[in-house]
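Tutorial handout. Part one gives the primary structure; part two gives the three-dimensional structure as tokens.
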Amino acid sequence: MLRSSMSVLEPQNRATHAARAEEIAVICHELRNSLAVVGSAARLLRTSADTASLKTVRSLIERQVDQMTRHIDDLLQPRRSNGHSHELQLSDLDLRTIARNAAQSIGPEIARRGHRLVVTLPEEPIPAHADGARIEQALSNLLINAAKYTPEGGHITLTLKRDRDLAYLRVRDSGIGIEPAMLSRIFGMFVQIDSAPPTADGGRGIGLAVVRTAAELHGGTVRATSPGLGLGSEFVIVLPVRQV
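Part two.
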């Protein structure tokens, strides 16, 4: 009888351990991203004497430290019934602020790689009831990927638009592009782009899965398109707009 019970429990335990290992991998991935941003910001502090720039960099570091603290809190919390240790911390916000913060966080990396980032935001607020940190994290992951997989001196755009009850956060790059066969798989956990060059800093196939999860937790979606290899990519997060 005991042997029979163990045979039932062991697969469940294996599944639990695998899910926990995946969750830890996601948190480590996001901590690594935040540390990279802080490192780039610290290098800017050494070279910039402009008061406005220093204020921006300090704000950037503070936000990244807050993000890292939250990731560590997620790591220390027990898993909940929905399979995630974290819960959404929802508030009313303006998606333009999220877009600005994400662009600011990737600024040092954009400068280091010689890219040009163009951000286009609407004049009117785009309200959402969302977890600002999670959405910023997802958008930052898209921008980080765009920077990684675009050759030096590339062009990246971030646009935010509203169409009726939906908001569209769009990241487009002039990078290496994506094969058509990969587009249906690219948001899977640990899926990597086979065509990525050695200079792409060795992505681990986690960032886009984080983006998908964040979008879906907010009742939204994410999609990727690309004309083909060497022709750049576009990623779009679609989120519901808060009715006011």
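Part three, for discussion. The helical segments are 2-47, 51-76, 95-113, 132-148, 207-217. The chain has five helices and seven strands.
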